[in-house]
Amino acid sequence: MLAAIIALAALAAVFGLGLGFAAVRFKVEGDPLVEKIDKILPQTQCGQCGFPGCRPYAAAIAEGRAEINQCPPGGEEGILKLAELLGREPMPLNPENGVAKTVPTVAVIDENACIGCTKCIQACPVDAILGAAQQMHTVIASECTGCELCLPPCPVDCIQMVPIADTPRTWRWPLPDAVGKAT
Amino acid sequence: MSWMERLFDFRGGLHLDERKAMSTRHPIRVAPVPPQLVLPLSQHAGSPAKPMVRIGERVRRGQTIAEPDGFVSVPIHASSSGTVVAIEARPIPHVSGLPAPCIVIDTDGLDEPLPTPEWTPVEDFHALDAKTLREIVRRAGIAGLGGAGFPSFIKLSPGRAVETLIINGAECEPYISCDQQLMAERADEIIGGVQVILHAIGAPHCLIGVEDNKPDAIAALRAAAAHDARIQVRVVPTRYPQGGEKQLIQTLTGREVPSEGLPLDIGLVVHNPGTARAVFRAVRYAEPLTSRIVTVTGGAVAQPQNFEARLGTPMRFLIEQAGGYVQAPGRLLMGGPMMGFALPSDELPVIKATNCILAAAPGELRPDETAMPCIRCGACQEACPINLLPQQLYWHARGGEYDKARALNLFDCIECGCCAQVCPSHIPLVQYYRHAKTEIWAEERERRKADAARERHEARQARLEREARERQQARARKKAQLAAHKATADPSEAPLTASVAPAVNTDDPVAAAIAAAKAKKAAKASVAEGDDPVARAIAAAKAKKAASAASADGAPADDPVAAAIAAAKARKAAKAAGSEAASAAGAEDDPVARAIAAAKAKKAARETAEPDGEP
């Protein structure tokens, strides 16, 4: 009897220590689900979903405050990935937020028309616009996410979205014509 | 020495009709200087070079006209003398058929070299250390001449002990004979290059693998290497794709390059004979890479032969030198029939990777037949020299399941085309794999870009927060300072001012001014804190959208009443959007954002109302 109690107590102590150690050692920082959702989102930070950036939207999805179909830049592909991750039913993109872009675009400032008001710089969510007050501004094309947030604040409408052209380096092999058709 | 003398084998592969004899009847001919040279800035793997000449500038042969940009990059040199007439995007020989930046030189026919070379020619390379040799190879712009165009100097800085240098003289693809003729005619220069490379990488010996269908090349190389016991010429069986780097390594050493790895991972470095020769000439004569051997062949060409062509020479010019076309080519390829790619025209320049221009007569090559459904016969699997599962890769690539294709070692595929060649259903298998590979690369590029955007966005948020905090602190400090100042200046009046100041003492103009300034600053600060420009921009964008929607479903745009209604509607929408965005951003109520959004909406509505306004 005593032996059994001691044995059980010892086991309980050992497992308790083990679990306690594991809880400290393998502690998960933050909400991993939000991270995972955020990884899927395209990071355009465009706010078309109604949230100020991709991470707040990811948090809203994780908390059930938002549906998974609010992100136009992510498109159908993004919705499918989110549906798979969260085990939800895929749904069509919410048309109220805009339509998915077919070609990636980049903002280009007409540097002759720019008056140097810095309004676009303040609007850019990824600091991809370079310039200072009364100085010409320009977009760092490689950092631009194509979110279009710089368009409305511009008082002279000198910013345009231009499709990103394919180069030999970014060109992708097309899929051969489907089986049954001539190749 | 036991494994050194034995030959091994690789699995799969095919015996193909060689058709090399047609281009080896004449010795290599030096092609004349064409009237115009087009030199793409990206002739190698890695970053394109940066131009360092201006339009109108006169250049001479061997002059550096573009410098490397980044580590994996090499310079470009003028391959003859003349004037730079353009630096612009021109079509280049690439599968995509897309144009890329090129330097265009109108030659003057003098072919004048630089008066003094850009580095010193060295008679005895043993006097130079490995670092100097690498630098010479880099400055000479040498990129692998086998076809992939990887900058050669990187392979000369292995960063670990190299057991064996392998020279890939197998040249297994049908029609191509540029390496074969180079080995037969310039064996001494190739051996000279091998010695330089051995010295630079500190390898104890070199194996030169040559297929047994090139007896001239084998004899010439053996004669040239007779004095150097470190260099052995090995005759390997003729079987496609013997010239694949991984296959040749397997045949010569019996070892396999690890999956997604490099030969260097097993202590080997592989170079092409043409590259070895270019290294020799760069060190011995201080000659940059301005020409290469190109096979011009195929049933549509009058006199198929090998040329030593200047880089940038238009392909049409070379074909004319080979007697022109005897008939319109059925297919025009760069490279061989197995791994080459179709060219849209012959108006493209020869680049460092151009080993062969194949103008095949109609019906000469296997025609593109109608693809039939896969019957799962497994012939592709038997032919695969890498031991992959071509059929599984095909299904996954076709279904867009690129992760699964990758898990089945898609990236070990050398795209040799054996599987497609044997496929009884004529499925263009390699194109599926190339499609999958480029899709995966594109996905990776996108992911990297998204990660960068996330990082930048987070950095920006942190900056905005920090700035807001700093402003608040500054305000608090100022306040404290002011209070302290007041307390010391007039201790008797202190309680009075403290109670009166917020209510604005009209009797004391100084106190009033201070209070007003304080109020202004506080208002500004609270605006700056609560006002997120991104939220503002979102609100504005929403308002614009709402405005355009309102005008679209309303009466004609030139009706002022309709316009006013639309404006009102937009304003209401903007107000809603503004508060929504503001609350999402964490600010309870943001009058500034709302006001701006409303103003924007008004402007948008006005624009849509104007008949000639922008839509």
Give the arrangement of secondary structure elements.
The complex is a heterodimer of chains A (183) and B (615).
Chain A: H1 2-25, H2 32-40, H3 54-62, H4 75-86, E1 105-109, H5 119-123, E2 129-130, E3 138-139, E4 159-163
Antiparallel strand pairs in A: 1-4, 2-3
Helix pairs in contact in A: 2-3
Chain B: H1 2-5, E1 29-30, E2 36-40, E3 50-51, E4 58-59, E5 64-67, E6 76-77, E7 82-91, E8 99-107, H2 130-139, H3 152-155, E9 164-169, H4 178-185, H5 187-201, E10 205-211, H6 215-225, E11 231-236, H7 245-253, E12 268-271, H8 273-284, E13 291-297, E14 305-310, H9 315-321, E15 331-334, E16 341-342, E17 356-360, H10 379-383, H11 390-398, H12 402-407, H13 418-422, H14 429-489, H15 494-500, H16 509-530, H17 533-553, H18 560-585, H19 591-609
Parallel strand pairs in B: 1-14, 9-10, 9-12, 10-11, 13-17
Antiparallel strand pairs in B: 2-8, 3-5, 4-7, 5-6, 7-8, 13-14, 15-16, 15-17
Helix pairs in contact in B: 2-5, 4-6, 5-6, 5-8, 11-14, 14-16, 17-18, 17-19, 18-19
Question: Can you walk me through this structure?
Answer:
The complex is a heterodimer of chains A (183) and B (615). With 183 residues, chain A is mainly α. Chain A contains five helices and four strands. Chain A has helices at 2-25, 32-40, 54-62, 75-86, 119-123, and strands at residues 105-109, 129-130, 138-139, 159-163. In chain A, the strands form two sheets. A two-stranded antiparallel sheet of chain A has the order 1-4. In chain A, helix 2 packs across helix 3 (54-62). The N and C termini of chain A lie far apart (82 Å). A six-stranded mixed sheet of chain B has the order 1-14-13-17-15-16, with helices on both faces. Chain B has 19 helices and 17 strands. Chain B is α/β, with parallel strands linked by helices and 615 residues long. The longest helix of chain B has 61 residues, at 429-489. Chain B folds into four domains: 3-360, 3-Layer(aba) Sandwich (Rossmann fold); 371-467, Fumarate Reductase Iron-sulfur Protein, Chain B, domain 2 (Orthogonal Bundle), CATH 1.10.1060; 470-521, no CATH class; 533-609. In chain B, helix 14 (429-489) packs antiparallel against helix 16. Chains A and B meet through helix 3 of A and helix 14, helix 17 and helix 18 of B. Chain A: [4Fe-4S] cluster 1 binds at residues 46, 49, 54, 71. Chain A: Residues 29-88 form the 4Fe-4S domain. Chain A: [4Fe-4S] cluster 2 binds at residues 114, 117, 120, 154. Chain A: It comes from Sinimarinibacterium thermocellulolyticum. Chain A: This is Ion-translocating oxidoreductase complex subunit B. Chain B: It is an enzyme of class 7 (translocase).
